[in-house]
Design a protein that fits this description.
Distance between the termini: 40 Å
Bound molecules: iron/sulfur cluster
Number of helices: 7
Largest sheet: 7 strands, mixed
Strand order of the largest sheet: 5-6-7-8-9-10-11
Order of helices and strands: EHEEHEHEEEEHEHEEEEEEEEHEEH
Structural class: alpha+beta
CATH topology of the largest domain: Metallo-beta-lactamase, Chain A
CATH class of the largest domain: Alpha Beta
Radius of gyration: 19 Å
Number of domains: 2
Strand content: 15-25%
Number of strands: 19
CATH architecture of the largest domain: 4-Layer Sandwich
CATH superfamily of the largest domain: Ribonuclease Z/Hydroxyacylglutathione hydrolase-like
Amino acid sequence: MEAMARASLRLPQNVEGDLFVDSTCIDCDTCRQLAPEVFARADDAGMSYVHRQPAAGEERTRALMALVACPTASIGTVAKADTAEAARRFPMDVGGGVSFCGFTSKDSFGAWSWLVRRPEGNVLVDSPRAAGVLLDRIEAMGGVRWLFLTHADDVADHAVLRRRFGCERVMHADDLSAGTADVERVVEGLEPVALDKDLLVIPVPGHTAGSAALLYRERDLFTGDHLWGTEDGTGLEASRSVCWHSWPEQVRSVERLLGYRFERVLPGHGPVFKASSPAAAHEALEAFLALARGPAGRAVGG
Ligand code: SF4
């Protein structure tokens, strides 16, 4: 049986009305990214809440997509709304043949998983929650050739995905554990590895020892928890407060990204970053590095 939000746990910060967030929220940010006109963060509680009830139509569908995507089933409706249409919106196209899978998993703290659709075989970046409706949609879109795992925290339902799609799982050796010891393709060291002519695995140790990014068509860089966009959309950031392995190494890994062309950064957590050109993306990298290396570097990201 699907988990459901409970009205008895409704947060007092929610505005009156049908849609609500309950106290099981883990503050993953997914709902706020998907429907900022409806969800906001209650800083005192460290949780999301409904700051405005959605209008009928697209705004309500978007709010229900957040309900579907929530990793902890913390969003609910008093009237028990039908979410089938919202669920069918995933994977959600974000342009360039890339889609956000929704259906985040609490096992990866609500990390975002991305589907890259390509004639030579689709790529799934990190694991969504393996909900049947999502897997059926992915199958209808051509299935999964590779499951690229950016790091140990975001592997969630990788074994279920392997069984369903027969995909080749790709992960860096330094992040393998008992649960991922049987992945089909292991990347080692710091050298980039080409999965195909338009897919390059770039090891970026720092957040974890075996973090890796995936570069697609010299345009999209999937970064896991290595690097993400700033809230205002103008820059790039990473945080030492969520760096589990080595902050100096993470900064060096960001520095090495200057050797690659890309325009979009699609992370596991945090906003997507979109630059107007590869040069503008490099400028954003340089701006982040100047901050990280400078006197304020110790405080970057808190
Ligand atoms: S998606 Fe769910 S867990 Fe994440 S911030 Fe929103 S209510 Fe909380």
